[in-house]
Amino acid sequence: MNSNKQLKYYLICLPIIALLLSACSVSRQIKRADKKFEIGEYYNAGEIYRSTFKRIKAKDKPTRAYVAFRQGESYRYINNPRAEQAYRNAIRYKYQDSIVYLHYAQVLHYQGKYADAEKQYKIYLESHPDDYVAQGGAFACRQVAEWKKQPSRYRIAPAKEFNQTRTNNFAPMFVGDSEDALMFTSNRTTQDKKLKKNSPITGLPTHSLYSTRKNALGKWEEIEPTEGISTAETGETTESGNEESVSEGKNTTPADIGVCCFSQDGKTMYFTYSKPVNGSDQGAKIYQSVRAGGTWGEPQEVKLFPDSTISCGHPALSFSGDTLYFVSDAPGGYGGKDLYFAEYSDGEWVAPTNLGPLLNTSGDELFPTIRKDGTLYFASNGHPGYGGLDIYKAVPQDTVWLLYNMGAPFNTAADDYGITFAGDTENGFFSSNRNTGSKRTTRINNDQIYSFTLPEMVFLVKGSVTDNNGEQLSDATLRLVGTDGTNAKVQAKRDGTYQLKLQRGVKYVMLATARGYLNQKQTLSTMDLTDSKTYTQDFTLAPISKPVTMDNIFYEFAKWDLTPASEEGLNALVKLLNDNPNITIELSAHTDRVGNAEANRILSEKRAQSVVTYLINKGIDKERLTPVGYGKQKPVVADKALHQKYAFIPVEQVLDETFIDSLTPEQQDICNQINRRTEFKVLKTTYKLY
């Protein structure tokens, strides 16, 4: 073959060889990523899938779909926002398994894109109509806007004393029954750089346990690695059968240590330990350490299952110390990570038992916490929620659990989990990787610790006591009687105001009294209240010694028929008579100066009788009521209150014809209106008293 032919041959073969080499390279990278994925190195796998996806030809849709889906899975496991685009690519290239729609929906749900997430849930439900996770997800996406409008009474705030910028800090736990000692998980930088290599699972520095306690001033002291645990010599067995420890450094793959719990005396700790060995994910295990003096002893593995390949983690110890709750992916579960418990017997934890389908789903149930009364708290992404992991409360009742989403402000679209309570209080800490900024971000948010408190519910009633002219009654007395046995009395302040504390779930009767005035009674109730409340209750007391004008009594023009607008004022008079059952009153009606005097008297008398008839029909004894029609015989005598309202009317001025005729037409109309009135005055205060 001459040189020209050889050159032509090479020019033809080179592209073919390049294509073959490229295809082989892509295939090798996919296999490499698959291996990383299978052993749980999700971060490394996701990065390889991502770089490989770009090199796959667009016409090779099946391969593109597969790589995009696996990339999405890798990133979803570690909450990397890149999962969204990866799933979108998988759907674009027709990935065959419909599970892609469920996982895509969950990623959108996690980012708070509820409308888009609901669409993907519905697509998945077309082929899996009975899937609980998809049903719950779609339901939650429709309801979350309403849920957010009804937050619980808890108040939360970042626990800045525990958090460190650009690090993960989570799963806080009080040490035993002490509220002054705390331990939590963190991947913050320490002096021992060897322990802070990035994890191939998350791509982040590995985690250790850190401790802090309150000083005499109630301030949390400096946070330090937990001695004996952060460098724990927890033995691992290699493929050759040799045992090695973290501190010996034979295996350079870093371990994750954290998520702990304690016995009530604080002397025994259980924690999660996870470390790949020889490039293979051996899963998580639970270890136990006993404190002797001020340091923790050498940790020992807690054997829960005969099969050592079964992962166990996130321990939670019952108050009595004889039941250990934990998380596992043991065969026979409901999918993902499930909640289990084991009983302590003869020095061993025995009979690990799945907590069942009321709590466990095909998603993940993680980070259990058990309280003294048996109430279980945990995080789940399988039950209906706000997105990601939500915190749930499970209350045991007979043979079942009553499950509640803890709601806002605990739960958000992000991961919210790892709650701990300070003793028997409703105060404590929890973890979240929520976005606290004003803008949506594409980066992974760090896990941070938040504090929570449940403010005491406070119920008050306050107001003022005045006479019918608005003058404060400083010598008024208020009595409070409740169905819980309360019988309190308080004197109004100099300005006529008062304030009384109430209790929840009580019905009260209040009575305002003052010398020379009629009593006034009011009722109020704190039944079924779910938050603090302050009632405002003002009292207006009518004088005994002078007539009281009723401003809200109205009649038909030139008639004595009461209008519907009078009902409120008439019912107020009924109440006053019932509040003061020993008084009798004169009920009088008055007209203005216009018209015939006798006609006005007859009209006013009939109007007074109309009011009396109304009162009798409402159950008031007729012997207590004396109707009188004065016509225009008794014009109003102005007092200070009337002068303050109408400056042109002097104090003690009689609004008779002589005075009114001296006014402008507009002022005359005002005075005529003032004279047209219905009044009552007290005649006796001893009716049926003797």
SSE map:
Elements: H1 3-38, H2 42-53, H3 61-77, H4 83-92, H5 99-110, H6 114-127, H7 132-148, E1 155-158, E2 169-174, E3 181-186, E4 208-213, E5 224-225, E6 236-237, E7 243-244, E8 256-262, E9 268-274, E10 284-292, E11 295-296, E12 300-301, E13 312-317, E14 323-328, E15 338-345, E16 348-354, E17 365-370, E18 376-380, E19 390-397, E20 400-405, E21 416-421, E22 428-432, E23 448-453, E24 459-467, E25 477-482, E26 487-491, E27 497-502, E28 507-513, E29 520-525, E30 533-536, E31 539-541, E32 548-550, H8 567-579, E33 584-590, H9 597-617, E34 625-631, H10 640-645, H11 657-661, H12 665-675, E35 677-684
Helix pairs in contact: 1-2, 2-3, 3-4, 3-5, 4-5, 5-6, 6-7
Detailed description of the structure:
By secondary structure, the protein is of the alpha+beta class. The chain has twelve helices and 35 strands. The strands form nine sheets. Strands 8, 9, 10, 11 and 12 form a five-stranded antiparallel beta sheet that branches. The chain has a four-stranded antiparallel beta sheet with strand order 1-23-22-21, with no helix packed on it. The chain has a four-stranded antiparallel beta sheet with strand order 2-3-4-5, with no helix packed on it. Strand 2 and strand 3 form a beta hairpin. Helix 3 packs antiparallel against helix 4, helix 4 runs antiparallel to helix 5 and helix 5 runs antiparallel to helix 6. The longest helix has 36 residues. The radius of gyration is 40 Å and the shape is elongated. It starts with a helix and ends in a 6-residue tail after the last strand.
